[in-house]
Amino acid sequence: MKLILASTSPYRLALLQRLRIPFETVDPDVDEAPVEGELPSDRARRLGALKAAAVTARDALVLGSDQVACVDGAILHKPRTPTAAMQQLISCSGRTVRFWTSVSLRNTATLWQGDRVVTCDVRFRDITASEAERYIELDQPLDCAGSFKWESLGITLFRAIETDDPTALEGLPLIAVCDLLREAGLSLPLLSEKM
């Protein structure tokens, strides 16, 4: 049975490649409009499941994922511009940003579906405007909710990261993915002793 990643995210693609299992990618093309009154965790779960359900391939395992980030109750979207990134980083300075990252795995043959939502709290240190500006210039985090790349220089902005799965912060919680793939009956390769 083939595995399909329902995402065009280069971050999710790179993360799933770490598992060394063959997969294809498909753009799920779902409506990500917010639902009034929806909790961030429910939004992440709903969108991950929608993405997995959007791919109609036969006899496949389809993996969908979504991430929602909030600071002081406000959702942080991808900034797209340096100005918006600057505003986000200043709003995060000295605060904790919570991320909810969902993963949904759907078997298109049996219609079985498994879901997980992994939380991650990022505690920011106090950031000056000049630090934020320099960081944005160096790391170009314009396609990242929260305006940082933790796997790069973004780590220098933090006091702490609290999570059961650090890959969730990057966009795809691999521990949860592995659990779901095993539940679905897919064998995962193990590293050989020589590696």
Protein architecture, described:
- It is a single chain.
- This protein is 30% helix and 27% strand.
- The protein is α/β, with parallel strands linked by helices.
- The chain has one domain: Maf protein, CATH 3.90.950.
- Strands 1, 2, 3, 4, 5, 6 and 7 form a 7-stranded mixed sheet that branches.
- Strand 5 and strand 6 form a beta hairpin.
- The protein is elongated and about 55 Å long.
- It starts with a strand and ends in a 12-residue tail after the last helix.
- Terminal CA distance reads 27 Å
CATH architecture: Alpha-Beta Complex
Going by helix content, strand content and strand pairing, the class is alpha/beta
Say what the CATH topology is.
Answer: Maf protein
The overall number of domains is: 1
Radius of gyration (Å): 17 Å
H/I helix tally: 6
What is the strand content? 25-35%
At the first level of CATH, the class is Alpha Beta
Biggest sheet details: 7 strands, mixed
Q: How would you spell out the order of helices and strands?
A: EHEHEEHEEHEHH
Cα shape: elongated
The number of strands is: 7
Helix content: 25-40%
The average pLDDT value, as a whole number, equals 93
Unreliable sequence segments: 191-195
Quick take:
This protein has six helices and seven strands. The chain has helices at 10-17, 40-54, 82-92, 129-139, 167-170, 174-183, and strands spanning 2-6, 24-26, 60-71, 74-76, 96-107, 113-124, 158-163.
Using brief descriptors, characterize the structure shown.
alpha/beta; Maf protein; 7-stranded mixed β-sheet; disordered C terminus
